[in-house]
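Weekly sync, protein design subgroup
Attendees: M.S., D.O., the rotation student, P.L. (late)

Item 1: inverse folding check
M.S. brought a backbone from last month's batch and wanted to see whether the design step gives back something sensible before we order anything. D.O. pointed out we never logged the input encoding, so this time it goes straight into the notes. Structure tokens as presented (257 positions):
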């Protein structure tokens, strides 16, 4: 299920939403040197991704040792890691990094569809603060679940999740044109935003709880609790940031096949 567009018009150009999308795209292709079929290098992700262990152990740094990430202060680890970017910097740089083109494209699609309306509700400056604080809240939620994890956390999905949480409260009657795949067939249909985003959140919650119950350990994966934390931030904080909202009720269109 892929959202394509919503039915809520905006009164002003979403400059910050566009800017965040451009920054994310440039970060992936220029700074990370990611490709269409290949992802970015592991070293760049390690340097500028946010590592929960470094957040919960100030002054301790992590580095690659062969194919494994080891951190100062871990049992059996001796010596010092090479100089790394400051941990506080990686909290922000990690929000603009992605592991693949699909990862980037999915986040930017959601940001474009829902971010313009949220930005319209609060203005450019407050939207920038809302977006960045949502990303920080998402990272802290993921860190709280696994504080000793040495796997870098990257992606805009935590900040985007905050946008989704804010959107669902601002525009509960909005409708979203959605592409739905059914085995080898697909259809385009207009669905309530409450259903699309509510289902998305429930899936994050389900997979997050399932992952906690049966941890795979060692490898990377989807930071479900970052999504949950970002979404919760959006729900809780949107009323403090938003100064206006629209509540359109538009009759649904017939499905298009």
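Designed sequence read out in the meeting:
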């Amino acid at each position: 299920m892929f959202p394509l567009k919503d039915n809520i018009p905006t009164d002003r150009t979403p400059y910050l939403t566009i800017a965040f999308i451009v920054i994310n795209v440039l970060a992936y292709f220029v700074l990370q040197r990611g490709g269409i079929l290949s992802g970015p290098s592991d070293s760049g992700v390690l340097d500028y991704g946010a590592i929960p262990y470094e957040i919960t152990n100030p002054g301790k740094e992590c580095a690659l040792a062969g194919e494994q990430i080891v951190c100062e202060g871990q049992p059996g680890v001796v010596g010092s890691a090479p100089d790394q970017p400051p941990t506080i910097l990686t909290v922000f740089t990690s929000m603009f990094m992605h592991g693949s083109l699909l990862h980037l494209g999915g986040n930017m699609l959601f940001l474009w569809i829902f971010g313009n309306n949220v930005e319209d509700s609060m203005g450019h400056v407050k939207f920038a603060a809302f977006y960045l604080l949502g990303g920080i809240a998402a990272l802290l939620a993921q860190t709280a679940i696994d504080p000793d994890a040495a796997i870098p956390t990257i992606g805009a999905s935590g900040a985007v999740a905050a946008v989704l949480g804010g959107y669902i409260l601002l525009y509960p009657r909005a409708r979203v044109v959605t592409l739905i795949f059914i085995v080898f067939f697909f259809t385009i249909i207009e669905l309530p935003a409450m259903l699309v985003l509510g289902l998305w959140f429930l899936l994050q919650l389900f997979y997050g709880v399932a992952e906690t119950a049966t941890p795979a350990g060692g490898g990377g994966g989807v930071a479900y609790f970052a999504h949950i934390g970002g979404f919760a931030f959006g729900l809780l904080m949107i009323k403090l940031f938003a100064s206006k909202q629209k509540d359109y009720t538009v009759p649904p269109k017939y499905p298009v096949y």
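Discussion: The beta strands are 2-6, 62-65, 68-71, 175-182, 185-192. The chain has a mean pLDDT of 89.
Action: P.L. to compare against the previous round before Friday.
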